[in-house]
């Protein structure tokens, strides 16, 4: 039985429906129905109704501090099941990063200055939680730019960690990226273990959507075009880099297309 971890920026029914949130639930559900063992991780955005979603904290997984720029940020893990699907969803939480009532922009539509650091915390929080779960995924599928740093850490800083070092990492490309160029100091926040200035020297200091896509693609075993109009520049970059690319499958062909792609990578 294949074990598949989906690292999603958004997943319905916990957030408003978008292509990202819809596929973040539908594809894991279809694969689970086909016999795979599937789990989902996503941020615990401040606009998620925890009572309605029946979230509860997993004490044995919480309590770790993740150090970013010499500051410790407590990691809290909560879990819920999507009704009628039996899909388990683990929520990465931290009051400083994820308690805001809007996900990635403020009330005026301005992107948060620390979105890059929030993505760093999310990626490292997922891997640290997987280590505690004692559940080793065969495949990790990253959906949304908030998950862009997970391939970097999985193949770099955690490349000797038994919980993930043998997992195949896949990045799904959508038609959206962050609505900003990240802070020029974001690289400082990425440093951890083998991830150092030399390791990141080929990437721009001010990272935009394409730069985040490059980091994810460079450290992935395969790339998925999640939508018919997925970011063409990112797909072209993946092809030029020699990565295996799965063209956007039809709804009827999702399970067979993903299953075959898993075998190819």
Index terms:
single chain, 265 residues, 9 helices, two-stranded antiparallel sheet, 31% helix, alpha/beta
Walk me through the structure.
With 265 residues, this protein is α/β, with parallel strands linked by helices. α5 links the parallel β8 and β9. The strands form 2 sheets. The protein has a 9-stranded mixed beta sheet, sandwiched between helices. A two-stranded antiparallel ribbon has the order 4-5. The radius of gyration is 17 Å and the shape is globular.
Explain briefly what this protein structure is.
The protein is of the alpha/beta class and about 260 residues long. The protein has helices at about 20-35, 50-55, 95-100, 115-135, 150-155, 185-190, 210-220, 230-240, 255-265; strands at about 5-10, 35-45, 55, 65-70, 70-75, 75-80, 85-95, 140-145, 170-175, 220-225, 245.
Q: What form results from the Cα inertia axes?
A: globular
Summarize the biggest pleated sheet: 9 strands, mixed
Report, as a whole number of angstroms, the end-to-end distance: 17 Å
Number of helical stretches of at least 4 residues: 9
Instruction: Enumerate the spans where pLDDT stays under 50 for 5 or more consecutive residues.
Output: none
Radius of gyration: 17 Å
Per DSSP E runs of 2 or more residues, the count of β-strands stands at 11
Residue share in helices?
25-40%
Main β-sheet, spatial strand arrangement: 3-6-7-2-1-8-9-10-11
Residues in β-strands, percent: 15-25%
Look at the structure and give the mean pLDDT.
95
| SSE succession | EHEHEEEEEHHEHEHHEHEH
- By helix and strand content, what is the structural category? alpha/beta
């Amino acid at each position: 039985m294949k074990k598949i971890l989906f690292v999603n920026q958004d997943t319905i029914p916990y957030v408003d429906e978008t292509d990202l949130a819809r596929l973040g639930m539908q594809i894991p559900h279809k694969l689970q129905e086909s016999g795979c063992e599937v789990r989902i991780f996503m941020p615990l955005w401040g606009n998620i109704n925890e009572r309605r979603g029946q979230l509860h904290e997993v004490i044995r997984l919480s309590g770790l501090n993740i150090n970013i720029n010499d500051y410790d940020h407590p990691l809290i893990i909560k879990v819920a099941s999507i009704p009628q699907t039996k899909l388990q969803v683990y929520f990465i939480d931290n009051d400083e990063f994820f308690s805001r009532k809007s996900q990635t922009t403020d009330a005026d539509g301005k992107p948060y200055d620390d979105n890059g650091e929030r993505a760093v915390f999310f990626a490292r929080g997922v891997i640290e939680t997987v280590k505690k779960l004692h559940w080793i995924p065969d495949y990790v599928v990253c959906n949304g730019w908030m998950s862009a740093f997970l391939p970097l850490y999985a193949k770099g800083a955690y490349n000797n960690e038994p919980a993930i070092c043998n997992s195949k990492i896949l990045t799904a490309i959508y038609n959206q990226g962050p609505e900003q160029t990240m802070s020029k100091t974001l690289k400082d926040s990425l440093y951890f273990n083998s991830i150092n200035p030399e390791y990141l020297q080929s990437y721009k200091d001010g990272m935009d959507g394409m730069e985040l896509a490059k980091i994810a693609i460079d450290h992935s075993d395969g790339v998925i075009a999640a939508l018919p109009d997925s970011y063409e520049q990112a797909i072209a970059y993946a092809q030029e880099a020699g990565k295996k690319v799965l063209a956007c499958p039809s709804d009827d062909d999702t399970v067979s297309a993903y299953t075959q792609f898993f075998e190819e990578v």
